[in-house]
Amino acid sequence: MNFLIESKPSEKVFWKSLKTNNSQKPLLEGVNLNEEEKLEVLAKHFEATFNNKEGTRQTNFFKYYKTLKFNKEITLNEFEMNLNKLKPKESSGFDLISNKIIKLFPLTVKNELLKIFNASFKFGYVPKIWKIAKIILILKKNSDPKLPASYRPISLLSCVGKLLERIINTRLTEWAESKNILVDEQSGFRKGRSTQNAIFKLIESVSKKFKKKQKTGLVLYDFAKAFDTISHVGILKILNKLRCPVAIGNWVQSYLDNRSFKIWNEKKSSSEKIIKSGVPQGGCLSALLFALFINDLGKKLKKLSPKLNFTLFADDVSVWCSHSKINCINKTLQKATMIIKKFAENRGLKINVEKCNYLIIARNFNRPSYIFSSNLNLNINGVQIKKTEYPTLLGITLDNPKLENLLNKSKLPPHYLQITNYVPYTIQYSTIRNYLKENKKRLT
């Protein structure tokens, strides 16, 4: 169960573990309330989380000319292609229609469902039953079961609604990639991209600077509950600004509007609560909508300095800078920090300074690590960003064993895995990249 708690909902192992631990334990154990009252207390707690102040719905979006390519009717081929990607054992929402049932539909029923999907897409209307989340709560590790904040919400959505959402996501992704809208540094949930891209980019960058006898300062930023708090109106403004396909934009507007949830435990549920902000947990569209929402941050960082490097992976932001002088590194990284701070304020996001951290990497033959003794003076609203020896980048702790494990996952042969105390200096990203390209067919 500890592994389940520490995993992210985006990880396959998380959902696998959830299925084997699906018997819920009593909620708010030890609190002198009946089950219905406990569910209401928890529902009100999470209702406050999904309540960004900029939640007011606006209707003046997507009034430009409608092009044909991404606005046309959904075809049976699209339907079948996305249906094949569904996992049969995935849990259903309140409508109780599972993926397994949908996959067993005869062709006549599929055609009728396709008509419903096309009506939803054409008129920009998402049925209410598809927008009600069934939330199951899991107690966080080493947390007080009497406190509502000690529970982690897991959302189960309508499988039928998620199938149409997957189709819309496929189209929106194709549109975004065809227009080169996302900055190249964004690797989150993009085809052919993974956490390895970001890790290898850092390794390559640091390796090159080592050869020039330069140090590298790395800062990892944390947005507080970013996926739960981004503004619905903010998302629509971005899509409108980017002139996303009209039918998709209108559908997304209905998809985000008037969402709700109920806390579910042992066949009992709380009253329905409205979700006024955030992208749906477990939704196929959520990662792409968030990536589009913060895409301008990448553009702003690109303009700051040629010495600055960064990676984005959904809501994870990592920035680094290399130079022979610590004060130059500090100056550039503080400017980047101010850009991120201002962007967060403008978009209604909050930076959790306590969870932000930095380290300095420098080649030093007299020490078994890369941690350099100098400090940086980086702050957000007067609060200092803490220094750490082994930060966690995209779930990977930056020490030698974890890097070796990362490369093992890449299926590289043994002679590429000669990890020493100076991993960034001895492993060349270009070598790894070329090997993966040359052996792509054999490795897949």
Automatic annotation (TrEMBL):
InterPro entries: DNA/RNA_pol_sf, RT_dom. CDD domains: RT_nLTR_like. It comes from the Eukaryota. Residues 119-398 form the Reverse transcriptase domain. PROSITE patterns: RT_POL. PANTHER family: REVERSE TRANSCRIPTASES (PTHR19446). This is Reverse transcriptase domain-containing protein. It comes from Brachionus calyciflorus.
